[in-house]
Amino acid sequence: MGCPLGVPNYPAGPVNHFELSQALGKVTDVPDPDALIRASGLTKRFGQFTAVDGIDFELRRGEAFGFLGPNGAGKSSTMRMIGCVSPPTGGELTILGLDPVTQGAAIRARLGVVPQEDTLDVELTVRENLLVYGRYFGLSRQVIAERTARLLEFVQLSERANDHVEPLSGGMKRRLTIARSLINEPEILILDEPTTGLDPQARHVVWDRLFRLKQQGVTLILTTHYMDEAEQLCDRLVVMDGGKIAAEGSPRELIDTYSSREVLELRFSTFEHDQAVEKLTAVPADRIEVLADRVLLYVDDGDAAMAGVRGLALEPLTSLVRRSTLEDVFLRLTGRRLEDG
Amino acid sequence: MSEQPLPLRILPAPLLLARRGSLGGRGSAHLIERHARAYRRTWLVLASGFVEPLFYLLSIGVGIGELVGKVKFDGQPVGFTSFVAPALLATSAMNGAIFDSTYNIFFRLKYAKLYDAVLATPLGAGDVALGEIGWALIRGGLYACAFMVVMLAMGLVHSAWAALAIPVALLIGFAFAGAGMAATTFIRSWQDFEYVTLTTLPMFLFSTTFYPLSVYPRPIQLVVDCTPLYQGIALLRGLSLGVVGPGLLWHVLYLAVMGAAGLAVASRRISRLLLR
User: Fold this and answer.
1) Cβ separation of A136 and B119 shorter than 8 Å?
2) Structural domain spans, chain A
3) What is the C-alpha to C-alpha distance for residues A149 and A321, in angstroms, rounded to an integer?
4) For chain B, how many structural domains are there in total?
5) Which of B150, B128, B136 lies closest to B39, judged by CA?
6) How confident is the model at residue B20, as a pLDDT?
């Protein structure tokens, strides 16, 4: 499918070169005719509460696109609108060139959805879950049987095919949900907090499977409040906070734009904390972030900054030099930490 | 469903609303397929729906029937068991539909998150409502057939009109499944199911199940005349005992409208609850 919308949005009549060059100056201003999802001014309100507040984004074929933000940032509401199970209150949303309000069923037929909360059918076995779900898409039993064998292999659940869903571990249920979401060979896979609630080992297994899907060219759109998940999986992401998009870019670009190369993390004893913060302003740093229990110095060279701290006769309880992460980007953009919500 | 063309003409607005969220109903068959598969392992639960009215028939119909003897129906003396049997068929059609459309749907709606999963697929709220009612009717139809076999074997069927008893039992099921499902979308917790029992139990006891309407004083007769179960009992009793007239069509109309309205409300409410 070259162009889901049929005709690209070129201006009619003579081209104003000044305007065109203005528009091309910023890449995000050019509508991508190959965009699988296009949202502009997308808004979702529940009564007085605005969950999603006029966001713009585009999803391109083959990319892994993420929404990073704390709980309540509007990520799930956005995913539900994309999944065509929640009509937008305002703005425009086009999915696969179709309108989610009037053509929801046609769009859903081409989406795969991994919801935040498992919605597996506990009255059925692992294999039956895929069978019944595939039937909802109108697939033949034969097609489903072929795909089921492959998908259970892929999510490492072949041995549990005839077991009931209830005794499976959280990680297994998540993997089964991923297998289920792939039964219709979707063009876009939507994952809402794919590893929330899983233990670290189970998370890594899920990440590994999602990474493989990405390498096979599946277009992923996911939400997360884990910065490591966003860094591992996303080619491009938006940082979301309070229903708005605060920044957009690849994880690397975001870190380069909004943070320094390194971060020096210092921890002082509680009575020295305030005093130390005052003195630290003497250390040359891009920015100093004071948290309840730590002080973060955003610098190019963490070791040099540490030497500067020692030069002020300050002895922190602990000190750590690390590279900047998306967590720092989020802190810079919103003044809060991701897990604060 | 053969009853559908009728309410379509009477209630165009709600049915149009019901259709807006649906695929034209084809998707609902997949939900029915899911239920059939889920119940394959718990067929004993299915069997209980047949046993219940049978026990009533044996204890009250046959047991108490021994003491009662004959009842007057339409001026003719009728054996008590023959009098009670069609009413028990109507009651079991009601109970089966109510159980399926209240407890089961509430569980799927609130706990199993079945519809959340279903609505992420091409199926819509209309398919869910239609699929659930379709399943309730299939189940109710099986019970009605089994009960009719027992009635025939016990010699309790007195007219060829009784051949219509199965479709009428399905119509009763449609009416109560529609209403039950619509009511379930308003239910907040398991405690609220007391209201369901509070509605169905008195209907079972007082809707002329065990004695004719003439027993009551006129004002109470009018009240009973308005209850939905009475429509079903009057229909089935008339057919089973061969007392048939055009008046029975009012009962058909009542039940068809009740089911169609319930279906329309249920489909809209499922939309409002899950597709926010």
Assistant:
1) no
2) 32-255, 260-323
3) 48
4) 1
5) B136
6) 43
| Cβ-nearest to A136 among B30, B113, B276 | B30
Going by C-alpha positions, the residue among B185, B166, B179 that lies closest to residue B235 is B166
SS3 A56: strand
Q: What percent of chain B has pLDDT over 90?
A: 70
For residue B21, give how far its alpha carbon lies from the nearest alpha carbon of chain A (Å): 9
Range of the domain at B95: 5-274
pLDDT surpassing 90 at residue A227? no
Closest among A136, A106, A108, A141 to A121, alpha carbons compared: A136
In whole angstroms, give the CA distance from residue A89 to residue A49: 12
What pLDDT digit, counting tens, does each position of A31-56 carry?
566 799 999 999 999 999 999 999 99
Which residue has better confidence, B194 or A337? B194
Which residues in A have their CB inside 8 Å of a CB on B?
A: 46, 83, 85-87, 104-106, 108-109, 111, 113, 115, 117-124, 128, 131-133, 135-138, 184
In chain B, which residues have their Cβ closer than 8 Å to the Cβ of A85? 116, 119-120, 274-275
Maximum CA pair distance of chain B?
59
Chain B residues within 8 A of A128 when measuring between CB atoms:
37
- Interface confidence, given as ipTM, is 0.83
Q: What is the mean pLDDT of residues A104-127?
A: 95
pLDDT category at A25 given cuts 50, 70, 90 is very low
Question: Reduced to 3 states, what is the DSSP secondary structure of residue B219?
Answer: helix
When CB atoms are compared, the residue of A86, A122, A128 closest to B275 is: A86
pLDDT at residue A101 is higher than 90: yes
* Residue B45 CB neighbours (<10 A): 9
Q: Are A3 and A38 in contact (CB under 8 A)?
A: no
How many cross-chain Cβ pairs, A to B, lie less than 8 Å apart?
Answer: 71
Q: Do domains A32-255 and A260-323 have the same CATH topology?
A: no
Class of domain A260-323: alpha beta
> Is A138 in contact with B117 (Cβ distance < 8 A)?
no
CA distances from residue B245 to A167, B148, B250, B251 in whole angstroms, order as listed: 58, 22, 10, 11
Q: Which residue from A32, A24, A42 is spatially nearest to A63, judged by alpha carbons?
A: A32
Q: Which CATH class is domain A32-255?
A: alpha beta
